[in-house]
TrEMBL record:
The lineage of its organism: Bacteria, Bacillati, Actinomycetota, Actinomycetes, Propionibacteriales. It comes from the Bacteria. Belongs to the ATP-dependent AMP-binding enzyme family. Transmembrane segments: none annotated. It comes from Aeromicrobium choanae. Coiled coil: none annotated. The keyword Lipid metabolism applies. This is Acyl-CoA synthetase. Gene3D superfamilies: N-terminal domain of ligase-like (3.40.50.12780). Keywords: Fatty acid metabolism, Ligase, Lipid metabolism. Signal peptide: none annotated. InterPro entries: AMP-binding_CS, AMP-dep_synth/lig_dom, ANL_N_sf.
């Protein structure tokens, strides 16, 4: 086994006191912002502290007790974060849930965590989930954020604020007592894994877990005390909670809420964050948007952009290979960054941002695209069960394609004999709610957490992730095939937006391929093709282009890994259809079910 360790870090300051500290230290600075009809609105840290005090008093007056759980089903709007802070302040445990989950999943989760109160967003959420309270043993009360969504059996956010303000003085001593009584090993939140298979499990995340992660990220140099970040990933996901709640509390930075991920790009252009964290699918979509912008809005500077991108790639590749970089190349790269490519970064709203990617590996081609326009995207790695990132690249280190970095201070990693990545840190969860057997299975000897991922540690101590242990395809001939290595060779080339390799218990590997609509449109324009999206899928030129990309991928793969047949799909994998998780990871079993006819047909013909 190979092992990598980093220096430890500890802290004794709890999250329950940080809001008041920020109200005193940076009280006039913006804490929580949002867009209202295109205009930016904000609460300062002092205003946020006042609001949270009122909501916490309202929760106490409503009957919420210390240690109880409170469920939140809402988008990333200011009230969601205010409620989260208030729940924690009065000694209870916030449980944010995905608004996109099925009612079956919701009933399972709510029955499992037995909340004493549910905070629901608006009509759509209330209609889908409020009735579930009668199937939950705790029969939680309901508060709706939008006043017009209030039902006969619920109250609304405005009423909660009024109640809290009226009871604030008498509740103040009780809230202070509860806040100070919180132990570092008490649950700070409960995160239900979105899960690519099976029902979600409630992961217990303690204050100690999160305090370690926050302090380690600060020590690593990734986090800036004056950072401005955008909250757009679901707050039911550990990564968004770490950046938008716990790090913001610790640093006193500003968070802008983006309730609708479809509006992320225009939101970035208004907010211009100094820090931006996203999942690979978002980075890929933004890369496509940038390419479309370059090809349609900067045609008069096409030669200049191409030349500047080549300079930046030359500089980048020399850094990758740790080759000497001349003063002349450094100067040319500096000029290239500040020239036409700055306009591309401004189009993305990321000209000031320190950029990170997590939740899954980012393809080398995507990293290189961003390097070519002057953006370095660093990667990290962690799980819900590790309270967020444990492994990260560092902003001051030489980049290395295919790696996700080294342990944060206090974190350790090693590779088991079967190739599984094992992690150990103060961020490791104490276990799953009500699942002692699953909690025990999570750990190997001596506190090493089993990640379920396969990887290796390179000679520089950097982690390389190669695949998911549970996602390895075992063909009917007994060959073990890692699907991600196949998919990564297909996605991003030409106009391919998504791909899924299939072959478990089958004689050979086939692939479902989804074109990116924007890139396919660009391809069609370049090749003089006409027709709707669906018509283009069967066009001989399009099919020939896909066949060429599959042939390219196969040239890089061993014979058992090669794709023998493929099918273009008219629609992509999505959260709405249940084929992606809320953090945009593929749900392989769900895709197999939804596209079972297409998969079966692939095994009756050959296209490569």
């Amino acid at each position: 086994m190979s092992t990598m360790t980093a220096e430890s870090t500890t802290t004794t300051t709890g999250f329950t006191t940080m809001l008041a500290t920020n109200a005193e230290r940076v009280g006039n600075d913006p804490a929580l912002s949002w867009l209202e009809e295109g205009e930016r609105r904000s609460h300062t840290w002092r205003e946020l502290h006042e609001l949270v005090q009122d909501v916490a008093a309202g929760l106490v007056a409503t009957g919420v007790q210390a240690g109880e759980r409170v469920g939140i089903l809402a988008s990333n709007r200011p009230e969601h974060l205010i409620a989260d802070h208030a729940i924690r302040l009065c000694g209870a445990v916030p449980v944010s849930l995905y608004v996109t989950m099925s009612t079956e999943q919701a009933q399972h989760i709510l029955s499992d965590c037995s909340p004493s109160l549910l905070i629901l967003e608006g009509d759509a959420v209330v209609e889908r989930f409020s009735g579930l309270r009668w199937f939950i043993e705790s029969e939680p009360a309901v508060i709706t954020i939008d006043a017009d969504a209030t039902t006969a059996s619920s109250s609304n956010w405005g009423e909660l604020l009024v109640r809290g303000h009226a009871h604030r003085d008498e509740a103040a001593s009780e809230i202070a007592r509860r806040a100070l009584a919180v132990d570092l090993d008490d649950p700070a939140t409960l995160i239900y894994t979105s899960g690519t298979t099976g029902m979600p499990k409630g992961t217990i995340i303690t204050h100690r877990n999160l305090l370690w992660d926050v302090e380690a990220l600060i020590q690593s140099g990734i986090v800036d005390y004056a950072q401005k970040s955008v909250c757009f990933l679901p707050l039911a996901h550990i990564t968004e909670r770490v950046w938008s709640i716990y790090l913001a509390l610790r640093t006193g930075g500003e968070v802008l809420c983006c309730p609708d991920a479809a509006q992320l790009l225009p939101t970035l252009k208004v907010f211009r964050p100094s820090f931006f964290m996203a999942v690979p699918r978002i980075w890929e979509k933004f890369a496509t948007a940038a390419q479309v912008f370059i090809s349609t809005s900067m045609t008069d500077r096409a030669d200049e952009i191409a030349a500047d991108r080549e300079v930046l790639l030359e500089h980048w590749r020399k850094r990758l290979n740790e080759e000497p970089i001349s003063a002349e190349l450094s100067q040319r790269a500096s000029l290239a960054r500040s020239g036409s490519l700055r306009q591309v970064r401004e189009f993305l709203g990321l000209e000031r941002a320190f950029c990170c990617s997590g939740a899954a590996g980012l393809r080398d081609e995507t990293i290189e695209f961003y390097a070519s326009i002057g953006i370095r995207v660093i990667q990290g790695y962690g799980l819900t069960e590790t309270s967020g990132p444990v492994i990260t690249e560092r902003p001051d280190t030489v980049p290395a394609l295919g790696t996700v970095g080294i342990p944060l201070p206090g974190g350790e990693m090693k590779i088991a004999d079967d190739g599984e990545i094992l992690l150990r840190s103060p961020g490791n969860t104490p276990g799953y709610l009500h699942l002692p057997e699953k909690s025990a299975e999570l750990y190997a000897e001596d506190g090493w957490l089993r990640t379920g991922d396969i990887g290796r540690i390179d000679e520089a101590g950097r982690l390389r992730i190669t695949d998911r242990k549970k996602e390895i395809i075992v063909t009917a001939t007994g060959k073990n095939v890692p699907p991600q290595s196949i998919e990564n060779l297909l996605v991003g080339r030409s106009f391919i937006g998504q791909a899924l390799a299939v072959g478990d218990a089958r004689p050979y590997i086939v692939a479902l391929i989804v074109p990116d609509p924007d890139l396919l449109t660009m391809f069609a324009r370049t090749h003089g093709l006409e027709g709707t999206f669906e018509e283009l899928l069967t066009h001989p030129v399009v099919e020939a282009a896909v066949a060429a990309e599959v042939h390219y991928a196969n040239s890089k793969l061993s014979r058992p890994e090669q794709v023998k047949s493929w099918q273009l799909l008219p629609r992509g994998f999505s959260v709405e259809e249940g084929t992606l998780t809320p953090t945009l990871k593929v749900k392989r079993s769900a895709i197999h079910q939804v596209f079972s006819d297409e998969i079966d047909e692939l095994y009756t013909r050959s296209r490569t």
